[in-house]
Each structure stands twice: as structure tokens, then as C-alpha cells.
Amino acid sequence: MGKRSVKRLVGLFSTPIIFLSSLVYAAKMAGPEYTTPSEGWDELWRELMIDIVVIGVIFAIVTTYLLIKYRRKSPNETGSATKLKPIAAFGWVLIPVFIFMADDIYLGLENLIHWRDFRNVPQNAYTVEATGRMWGYEIKYPEGITTQNEMRVPVGRPIQVTLQSSDVIHTMFIPDYRVKWDMLPGTVHYLWFYPKEAGEHVFTCTEFCGVLHSGMYGKLIVMPVDAFNKWVDENKPKGENKPKEGGAV
Ligand SMILES: [Cu+2]
């Protein structure tokens, strides 16, 4: 098989794969303004699981078939290798490679889209400031309220949490919303999530930060908007009537 045939074969498989991947990417980029981080990661996880199962089942069937078809039928039987034609040998290598590559490229692009959404906080987000310390979290609200190991947010609005640390490296991980980011001393990072229903969740530190690391967690309380506004009114420092930007709903 000549060099030209190999090139032709590569071109034959790669063109539709690149074309299809780009098409899917373009369609997704033109989609809604953002997907929420949790929905995005869940979707990616489901797709990954489906792909792994489909690929695993196909491989299991082919392997089982070959094991049975070419099994030794008598103790003295010796095998004889069939020589593959070059085109067949290339096919056996290139076809699976392109199938895997197409899947990898697709999942990679999908991941980029979710990553873009996770790094772009929606404009109307409510912002709280979280500071990690050994061993707990201090949460500051734009209305001047401060809570310890408890974060209250209104339902139905994207929530941005800015992250910093007053001593060593900590993390804020909110498993129910699939978001996590390090809290580093001397610099400010952020994460965001979108609570669609009222309820209680846990946030916790996942960076080993000292002897009481395992006790470093807090409660995230997603409140109905009216209840949240009432809580803000009751707890904000007296004389502070004007919320800062990113404040009450
Ligand atoms: Cu910590």
C-alpha cells in the first residue's frame, strides 16, 4: 500500500470527523447564554458513561467472538497466523483510532463549552465573599452582614462566591452544585452556581489544611426570595439602607 493510499485513507476518515465535531461545537456555542455548571457537568458525565458502555460492549462482543472462533480445539493443535493485506492491517488500526479520536474530540469540545460557562459569571449574579481560615468559613454579604460557616442565598438567581484565604490553602466544594475551587492566600478566585430550588446543602474544604480539616464545612441555605429579603432586613447593620452593587433581590 503506497503513501498516497494511506493519505487518502486518513483524509477519508478525518474530514467527516473534524467537520461533524465542528458542527456540534458551533451549534452548542450558539445555544442559550449559559448552561448552569451542575447541569453541564452532569450532561458531560452521562455522555462519558454512555460512550464507555457502548465502546466496552462492542469490544466485549468482538473479543468473545474471536476467543470462541479461534480457540484451540485439540491439545496438540498449533495455530497459523493469517497474513493480513496491508489495507486490512491499516483499516484495523485506523478505524478504531478515528472512532476514539472523534469521541475524544467531541467530549473535549463539550468540556470547553461547560468550562467557558463556569468561568463566565452571569451579569445578574448575587455575590457573596467567602474567606477560608483554619478551620472555617466567613461569609460576607453585600448588605454588610457576616455569617460563620453558613451561606444564605436567594433561590432563582445565579450566585457568585468570591474566594480567598486568610492563612493556608483551603477549598470551597459544593457537591450538590458540582462546583469547587481553591481559596488561596493573597489572591481572589471565584465560583458560581445557580440554585433553582430552595433547600439546604453542604459546602466543605477538600484541601488538607491542618488537623481540623475534616471539621471544615458549612451549610448552604437556599431561601425563597421573600424570606431571604426578610432575613437581610433583619440582620443587616442598622443605618445601612443602600445595598452595594450585586445586593438584595
Ligand atoms: Cu481547609
Tell me roughly what share of residues is in helical segments: 40-55%
H/E element string?
Answer: HHHEEEEEEEEEEH
Q: Give a list of the ligands.
A: copper (II) ion
Q: Main beta sheet, described?
A: 5 strands, mixed
Q: Regions with pLDDT < 50 over 5+ consecutive residues?
A: none
Number of helices: 4
Please give the order of strands in the largest beta sheet: 3-2-1-5-8
Number of strand elements: 10
Measured between the Cα atoms of the first and last residue, the distance is: 69 Å
Strand content: 15-25%
The average pLDDT score comes to 86
Judging from the principal axes of the Cα atoms, what is the shape? elongated
Backbone structural class: alpha+beta
Q: Rounded to an integer, what's the Rg over CA atoms?
A: 27 Å
Pick out its properties:
249 residues, alpha+beta, 5-stranded mixed sheet, 3-stranded mixed sheet, 42% helix, elongated, binds copper (II) ion
Explain what you see.
There is one protein chain. This protein is of the alpha+beta class and 249 residues long. It contains 4 helices and 10 strands; from the N terminus they run H-H-H-E-E-E-E-E-E-E-E-E-E-H. It has helices at residues 3-29, 37-69, 86-119, 225-235, and strands at residues 126-133, 136-140, 146-148, 150-154, 159-165, 170-174, 179-183, 189-193, 199-204, 217-223. A 5-stranded mixed sheet has the order 3-2-1-5-8, with no helix packed on it. A 3-stranded mixed sheet has the order 4-10-9. A two-stranded antiparallel ribbon has the order 6-7. It is elongated, with a radius of gyration of 27 Å. It starts with a helix and ends in a 14-residue tail after the last helix. The model has no long low-confidence stretch (mean pLDDT 86). Bound molecules: copper (II) ion. Copper (II) ion (CU) is lined by residues 132, 135, 170, 205, 207, 209, 213, 216.
